[in-house]
Amino acid sequence: MKKLLGLLLMTVLIAGSLFAAGGKDSAAAEENKMVVVKTMAYGDNSNSEGVNWVRVVNTFHENNPNIKIDFEMLYDEAYHQKVVARLASGDVPHLAYMGADARWGAPWKEAGQQYDHRDIIDSSFYDLNLIPPMGPNGEIYEIPLGTSNITTVLYMNKALVEELGFSQPKTYADLKAMVPAAKAAGLEVVSIDGADGWAWGSCLMSVMAARTSGDPQWVSKAVDGQFKFTDKEFVSALEYIEMMVNDGVISSKSVLVDYGTNISNFSNKKALFMVQGQWAAGGIENPEVSDNTVMMAWPEMPGEKSSTNGSVAAAIQVGYGLTKAGAADPEVKDAAMKFLSVFYSEPETTQRLRDGAIVAPILKGYTVPSDLPAIMKEKVALAQKALNTDVIDAYLSGAPNDALNAGMQKIASGQATAAQIAAEVEGLLR
């Protein structure tokens, strides 16, 4: 009996030690478990967006060895094309750079991957008053990098303009008056990356439709059917392109200029003015130019309505957001939000502000540094005083928007009239 009891006791002790060991192994396995957040990031190795993204991710990995931000990073049209391809194939990322409008939000909406972030946004960290509703019931589908995104900025090299004996233009006639002197000096008056179809729509025409109609929301109303793109107001806005090319304000050769070349030309004093969005401010690397750049609304255009004088087009800022696929896994959701708390932290937001990627932060209690570069202060000043209008590709998408962008290139190069392009867009929309 004593031998039997001893044997039973030994068995219990062995079993207990094995259970304890198994428990430790299980705990260790849980502790060492890697949570992978599949991510689509925006940027490339040559711009601040891409460089900063990689830096933030690498630092985050060092401090969080159990989380992996498994990202694919692309820029410009390549990004949009890959979003569509990945969603179509079922390879849905957990976290992605996205927006709420037709250009940045439509693919996610069509795939049923928009996720309402209202319940997971930290109201003590973000100023929710600065994040506009993005869905019909007030949903928030992404965390914006900053406040409203101005897309129609006219950048002026103040020093260069003054060297030619001119000052900041108040009217289109003032711009036109600079053409002879600029040509004599071998300079462009207004440079635009016309090879990028979206630049004509987002960075030029969005505000012109509001100027000719006097209605800041003309575009969204037209998409809803209240107006037609063949209406006089929109045709007149398109005719501005032909007028500017004929007057020499914009070159017909601009259709060969891409985004990088456009910014380079302005940065290297080859143009008096440049058309682009507010984000391009960070790409002007020549301090002689950036320190003398004025960021302005387009001057008064011929025939424009006084109610929209001085207006600029602006949309909800894009940012990073969880997809429904990412939010479905609690561990992935928590890991993604932990990463975003670092990505949107005050130091990173300040860096983004200095780089020119945003107009103003959405962080609660944030104080804008007093030593911001002059061009960034210009951006903030423009945002504070300008009337905002619709951005075309925030409402118009697919074939109609593609036809409009390509059509404006045709107008600039003399291959089509404004009326023809307006009719093509309206036909594809209805």
TrEMBL record:
A Pfam family the protein falls into: SBP_bac_1
Compartment(s) where it occurs, according to its Swiss-Prot or TrEMBL record: Periplasm
Superkingdom in the source lineage: Bacteria
Keywords: Signal
Signal peptide: 1-20
Coiled-coil residues: none
One cellular component (GO) term of this entry: periplasmic space
InterPro entries listed in its UniProt record: Bact_solute-bd_prot1, SBP
Entry annotated with the keyword Iron: no
Similarity annotation: Belongs to the bacterial solute-binding protein 1 family.
Name of this protein: Extracellular solute-binding protein
Organism whose genome encodes this protein: Oceanispirochaeta crateris
